[in-house]
Write the structure tokens for this entry.
Amino acid sequence: MLHFAPYSVLSLLALTICFLLVCVFEFVNGFHDTANAVATVIYTHSLKPKQAVLWSGLMNFIGVLAGGISVAYGLVELLPADVLSPPNGDPAVPMLIALFGTALAWNLFTWWFGIPNSSSHCVIGALIGVAIGDAFLHARGLGNSVDWSQIWKVLRALAISPILGLVGAGLLYTLMKLVIKDPELYQPPQGEKPPHKFVRGLLILTCTGVSFSHGSNDGQKSIGLIMLTIIGILPATFALSPNAAPHIAQIAPQAVIAAPLIDKYDHDGLRDEAVLSANRLQNTDPAKVIPSMLRADIYEVIAGLKAVTNNPDASAADKKTAKDISATLRPTVEYAPWWVRLLSALCLGLGTMIGYKRIVHTLGEKIGNTHLTPAQGASAELVGAGLIATAGYTGLPVSTTHIITAGIAGTMIGSGSGINPAMLTKIALAWIFTLPITIAIAASLFYVMSM
């Protein structure tokens, strides 16, 4: 239904639409996720809103630059190889519209009701939905089209991190009460008066930490989405890294090793396509490379090698070889230009400036039975910054929203004030329903538009 020739007028129009969609999604992501970083400094009047947003935007930008791209492509690889990089070079318009349209709609819906929902959940659900839609489209079993090992890895990180935030922030708050006796730390903000210098400095420090770590993790997600867009629409230009030349020379000898290794194990249907791709890569001529076809073959081989590493029958030596070959192939297709990083940071920062008020109000007054105190905000953000930064450098996508929200809830429990069951129920329901709803919508959209 939506298959355009590369560089045609329709293809360029689709690129523009999809590019706008990804920018708007990241803008809305700022409503949800980046607002968590500035919630405590704004709510406690430690910084004026404009100051907080500008400072948070700067720290997000630095975090994006320092964060790498492991999370970006960890998300991207949730998609099957034939969707991620169509072998015939067709623009991947159905995938992009299904992905961004679904995630954007659900993000706006939850934001409108002031519910701190996870943008990460929206994206992951939409990615899984596209993979499932692709399986139905090609009459394949879900095990052949969906990388369940990668999905479980991502979902485990999303599930465990809020628990760590809840417990960690609660314990830190309790320890803070035992060690620091400043009463102003444990009182809700009074009027428009800012706290004294020590408290204000502490809250600005925690805002800085969450903003930087948010950029290093969530910023990577937006980098991955932007790269999906420009590669999916204009594969001939962006399918391979601009610095791919030295890596291309290594592809053929690595493919010679990969082909028999993949063929050695049965991977629920992945083997045949991956072996064919590995055989084609053995004849790679740097002077005659067709970017979209080379990219498609590399991702097919990476998928086959990943299946080897996840196969319980594979020996430790074979698993290590599979990982080493993947690491050699990835730099050819996994990269992010500087302007993509800049665009990611700008979209997140601008979204924070426009839509932070709803989420700040929820975090400050609706999570617990009492209003948020500086000590509670600082505890939640210190623990949150540590968890988010750690995940960013290990390649695991986590939700800033879930970690900070859970951290605030932990401090409310630690203070003895208790939590607001009505709001926590709304957040929990959004958490539970986000994945099935986004999966269903994205799968349906992709299937209909790809027929």
DSSP finds 18 helices and no strands in the chain. Residues 242-333 form one domain.
